[in-house]
User: Fold this.
Amino acid sequence: DVKVTQSSRYLVKRTGEKVFLECVQDMDHENMFWYRQDPGLGLRLIYFSYDVKMKEKGDIPEGYSVSREKKERFSLILESASTNQTSMYLCASSLAAQGYGYTFGSGTRLTVV
Amino acid sequence: RKEVEQDPGPFNVPEGATVAFNCTYSNSASQSFFWYRQDCRKEPKLLMSVYSSGNEDGRFTAQLNRASQYISLLIRDSKLSDSATYLCVVTSSASKIIFGSGTRLSIRP
Assistant:
């Protein structure tokens, strides 16, 4: 089974802090994604990556950046955390890019105070 | 108007009932369609793909209506374990993948 591991299940950070969310997958998948999930808004794509050192903006990239130095690892960075970034963050990986066969990590619930 | 819309529910039905819900999409160029299931406080997991000809997996049937731009999910003989949020996913290109907000289903004994 593909495993996608997110480093933290719960995180509390202060406004203005730099926050790193780590995601690691173990099945050699090319494609990795970062979503945030908020009540009533569903999952929204922040960034995605089709290959090492490659990244593409999703629908809501503002306030975020990403890093993909190795194929198995995709990091999401909040440069200066703000309270409106309080959310559930979900990482996913897949062989195919178009929504099929996504495997999600268990999520990181980030609270910015 | 949202690009992908789902009735948030909750749909509250008795065990053994048949329940169906839809997901509408606005982009007629949409190419691929899927249903995911998400349990409370868990990550989404792929339930099934939706093909033009419709597809069935046990008690679950998914259908696509391109003319009216919606997909549907039918669950027969519902079980308590079917209680979850069902998310539809619509893709129009490799970078345009949109999740619906989900429909909450609750099966009562």
The CA atoms of residues 15 and 23 of chain B lie 23 Å apart.
